[in-house]
Write a structure and sequence with these properties.
Phosphoenolpyruvate Carboxykinase, domain 2; Phosphoenolpyruvate Carboxykinase, domain 3; eight-stranded mixed β-sheet; six-stranded mixed β-sheet
């Protein structure tokens, strides 16, 4: 028997949006296959060559609907001060009135899909339930991969079950005789991705693209969940979860938060270069973390799939990802080869002689535009990944030994820094970011774009309260049971612009040192910025790195750090008069260590 609360809500949406029909998603493979086949027949998707890419399809979006739209993303908390300075805010009353007008009749000529879904393993105490109502078959297919969907979720729901109400429409109603475009969406000024934290509700209108429309992902798993986590004393974070097995068979788990284009997925699927080490993937993007009765911090991956950036992914950079997307994958805005396969920039050393680009046009290497959109995507089941950990869906979660923060910093920041303690680690997380390069259209090339905890676009409430929540979490257990916190930087360069560290599989050397430090405090050197490896004890066996480069990787230049401190002071102005006292204290102590 379905929940009356759920049925009443669905009926409200039917009256409001006026779909032609309502379909309940049961979560079966047969449904999924039939849905994709229907989209292929209607030419809204392209079936890839089953001999080369079995079970795979390609979608092309409208050129105006290719990425998350931060400027149209809102936290509609009751009070503006609860949304804070880093979120767009409109009052719930105003936002609801505006969006209800858009929703009126928005699903005419379309099918309303009812998608019950679980974020996290079914029935886990870590997990949360949502229901997405959408008029997009693309969203439905992607949600089937990215979450646990259907009847198995409904079976867990009772009248008392709290669930996140997720309403989505592409915002393109059809009248009789209208031709449905290949990718329906609304103009940018009519796009809204709104979180109502106090109402446990998400409304999305006008976009069919990933993070705007797959409401279990950033909207629920980070923005709404971070608000829930603050109130319930846990953490919802933009983090990978990695399982590491030493040559001696010792198993440890680490999480890592990195801004976009800083190697998060590559690290989650690392191929260790050191003999005897093994790595397994638990999650590549989001971690939910809670303390358990033993006083340790445990994490689950709330997702069931990977919604990854295809650009730059290759057999050289991430062989596990390439193997994952060999079958049963939805591709979005990649190029199509003449033999019915996919391609994107940097996938191979040499581009094919001819392609159909992401907009459906002929393309050759002499073309002025890229063949694939820079934000082209793949959606693949996590179970496809060769490196997926056998226990990746453990409902009890996995115990975390270390938390990594990082960014793309060509200078100043050493290869790895251990924080002095948990509060200092929170400070390091609050100042992480990447240097703006010529690849970004900006007048601020060379400056650092700070992205605290890689969560700046995803915190569902005031950033000061978020930082204080992290600090309060550190008080919930004994200090010796807290994970140690590290700042890593794979991207330091020499004066000629060449990377000093080989990265990829060689990053296991940094992880090996980190795990040795979580066992006992040895092989470390105290510096003003934190604890660095003892160069004599850092494992470089078999690694051909220049001694001068190695020295630079761990150098702490006081003049560069004076500039870094000024940059941090500037960044801390975002908190206004609510700068957390601990961040102020940590910055003062950093200054003092350089002048003592």
């Amino acid at each position: 028997m379905y929940s009356r609360k759920l049925l009443d809500w669905i009926h409200e949406v039917e009256l409001l949006c006026q779909p032609d029909q309502t379909v309940w998603w049961h979560g079966t493979q047969q449904e999924y296959d039939a849905l994709l086949e229907d989209l292929v027949i209607k030419k809204k998707a392209i079936r890839l060559n089953p001999k080369l890419r079995p079970g795979c399809v390609l979608f092309r979006t409208d050129p105006s609907d290719v990425a998350r739209v931060e400027q149209r993303t809102f936290i509609s908390s009751k009070r503006k001060e609860d949304a804070g300075p880093t979120n767009n805010w409109v009052s719930p009353e105003t936002m609801k009135a505006t969006m209800l007008e858009y929703y009126q009749g928005s699903m005419r000529g379309r099918t309303l899909y009812v998608i019950p879904f679980s974020m996290g393993p079914l029935g886990s105490s870590f997990s949360k339930i949502g229901v997405e109502l959408t008029d997009s078959a693309y969203v439905t297919a992607n949600m089937h991969i990215m979450t646990r969907t259907g009847d198995s979720v409904l079976d867990l729901m009772t009248e008392d079950t709290k669930f996140v109400k997720c309403l989505h429409s592409v915002g393109y109603p059809l009248s009789k005789g209208d031709i449905d475009p290949l990718w329906p969406c609304a103009p940018i000024e009519q796009k809204f991705i709104t979180q109502f934290p106090e109402d446990n509700m998400i409304w999305s209108y006008g976009s069919g693209y990933g993070g705007n429309a797959l409401l279990g992902k950033k909207c629920f798993a980070l923005r709404i969940a971070s608000y829930q986590a603050k109130n319930e004393k846990w953490l919802a974070e933009h983090m990978l979860i990695l399982k590491l097995i030493s040559p001696e068979g010792v198993i440890r788990y680490v999480t890592g938060a990195f801004p976009s284009a800083c190697g998060k997925t590559n690290l989650a699927m690392i191929h260790p270069s050191l003999p005897g080490w093994k790595a397994e993937t638990v999650g590549d993007d989001i971690a939910w973390l809670r303390f358990k009765d033993d006083g340790r911090l445990y994490a689950i991956n709330p997702e069931a799939g990977f919604f990854g950036v295809a650009s730059g992914t290759s057999w050289k950079s991430n062989p596990n990802a390439m193997a994952t997307i060999a079958k049963d994958t939805i591709f979005t805005n990649v190029a199509l080869t003449d033999d019915g396969d996919v391609w994107w920039e940097d996938m191979t050393d040499q581009a094919p002689a001819h392609l159909i680009d992401w907009q459906g046009n002929d393309w050759t290497p002499s073309s002025q535009k890229k063949a694939a959109h820079p934000n082209c995507r793949f959606t693949a089941p996590a179970k496809n990944c060769p490196s997926i950990a056998p226990n990746w869906e453990d409902p009890e979660g996995v115990p975390i030994s270390a938390i990594l923060f990082g960014g793309r910093r060509p200078s100043t920041i050493p290869l790895v820094i251990e924080s002095f303690d948990f509060n200092h680690g929170v400070f390091l997380g609050s100042i992480m970011g990447s240097e703006i390069t010529a690849a970004t259209i900006s007048d601020d090339i060379g400056k650092v774009r700070r992205d605290p905890f890689a969560m700046l676009p995803f915190i569902g409430y005031h950033i000061s309260d978020y930082i204080n929540h992290w600090l309060e979490m550190g008080q919930l257990t004994q200090p010796e049971k807290l994970p140690k916190i590290y700042f890593v930087n794979w991207f330091r360069k020499d004066e000629n612009g060449h990377y000093l560290w080989p990265g990829f599989g060689e990053n296991i050397r940094v992880l090996e040192w980190i795990l040795s430090r979580t066992d006992q405090d040895k092989n470390g050197i105290t510096t003003p910025v934190g604890i660095l490896p003892d160069p004599a004890q850092f494992n470089l066996k078999g690694c051909s790195i220049d001694p001068v480069a190695y020295k630079t990787l761990f150098s702490v230049d006081s003049s560069a750090w004076e500039e870094e401190i000024r940059s941090i002071e500037q960044h801390q102005k975002i908190y206004g008069d609510r700068l957390p006292e601990e961040l102020k204290k940590q910055l003062m102590e950093l200054k003092q260590r350089f002048h003592s």
